Amino acid sequence: YDSRTWSGAEGMLYRPATVVRPLTPVGKVDYQGELWQAVSLSGEPIGAGECVEVISVERLTLYVDRAPPRRDSTIQV
To answer: Which of 10, 23, 43, 47 would be 27's cystine partner, CB 3.0–4.6 Å?
Structure first.
């Protein structure tokens, strides 16, 4: 999804954040320079420094999952 043109909480969906305080399953993430409370949707721990993706927003809490691996745009032959 291309959420760059969405506004408000919807604009946060499917965007990356970095775990600052481990999610066990609740912790803190840095989302665009702001500290947010976050919950790991899977319930499994996610360590500090890992990249996550915002799946949903409820009030002031982000529900996140591990970010999918980034695709490398270069093709090696």
So the answer is: 23
- DSSP character for 67? P
The per-residue pLDDT for range 5-33, each reduced to its tens digit, is 777 888 899 999 999 999 999 999 999 99
Dihedral (Cα; 39, 10, 36, 17), 10-degree rounding:
80
- 59 to 9, 16, 51: CA distances (angstroms): 9, 18, 22
The residue to which tokens 């093709």 are assigned: 75
pTM above 0.90, yes or no: no
The first and second tokens of residue 4, run together, are: 């760059």
Identify the DSSP state of 51: E
Could you give the CA distance from residue 24 to residue 43 in angstroms, rounded to a whole number?
7
